[in-house]
């Protein structure tokens, strides 16, 4: 595997949160390119994210992802190009082509799901199912809203201050009763 591919795999592993796998790829890269200080610093920053106990048993039994032939890289690279430009719809379409060509690749499927989450929704929002807010009350003299509209959930909550009492125990009991009542409603 060439150094460029190792660096790409390491960065993908970092993005997925697989820091141990990323370290292995960085180490393989540095074995081929020992003078690359930029990658060495990146590897140290990833290593700093790990707990010492995670560094003790670093060996994994199976490889991170299966080897691919060069066909999927074209669509996946094109998808990454679109994603880096913020065109998530186009990126998702490119990754769909890559997944179709290589349906067993878990990495491609995972990235496709990420991009679908970032892409614009294909259907319109269901405004009929949304919670209705009360219209703001306007005063004739000022013309502006008297207060912001509140949802039914916020209106049902009790934010009124508890009157100050000398007995601290009863004050705490009232607070506890409000907390318990709020938990039952949600």
Low-confidence segments: 68-72
Written as H for each helix and E for each strand, in order along the chain, the element string is HHHHHHHHH
Shape: flat
C-alpha Rg (nearest Å):
28 Å
What is the tally of helical segments?
9
> How would you classify the helix and strand content by structural class?
mainly alpha
Major beta sheet, specifics? none
Report on this model:
- Helix 1 packs antiparallel against helix 2, helix 5 packs antiparallel against helix 6 and helix 6 runs antiparallel to helix 7.
- About 3% of the residues have low confidence.
- The chain is built from 9 helices and no strands.
- Among the domains are: 54 residues, no CATH class; 48 residues, no CATH class.
- With 186 residues, the chain is mainly α.
- It is flat, with a radius of gyration of 28 Å.
């Amino acid at each position: 595997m060439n150094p460029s591919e190792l660096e790409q795999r390491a960065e993908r592993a970092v993005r997925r949160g697989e820091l141990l796998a990323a370290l292995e790829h960085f180490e393989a890269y540095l074995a081929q390119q020992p003078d690359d200080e930029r990658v060495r610093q990146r590897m140290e920053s990833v290593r700093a994210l790990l707990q010492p106990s995670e560094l003790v048993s670093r060996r994994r039994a199976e490889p991170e992802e299966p080897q691919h032939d060069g066909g999927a890289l074209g669509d996946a690279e094109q998808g990454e190009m679109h994603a880096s430009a913020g065109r998530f719809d186009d990126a998702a379409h490119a990754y769909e082509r890559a997944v179709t060509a290589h349906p067993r690749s878990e990495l491609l499927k995972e990235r496709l799901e990420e991009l679908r989450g970032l892409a614009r929704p294909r259907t319109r929002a269901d405004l009929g199912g949304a919670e209705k807010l009360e219209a703001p009350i306007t005063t004739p003299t000022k013309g502006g809203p008297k207060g912001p509209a509140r949802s039914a959930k916020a209106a049902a909550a009790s934010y009124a201050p508890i009157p100050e009492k000398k007995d601290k125990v009863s004050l705490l009991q009232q607070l506890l009763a409000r907390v318990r009542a709020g938990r039952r409603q949600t």
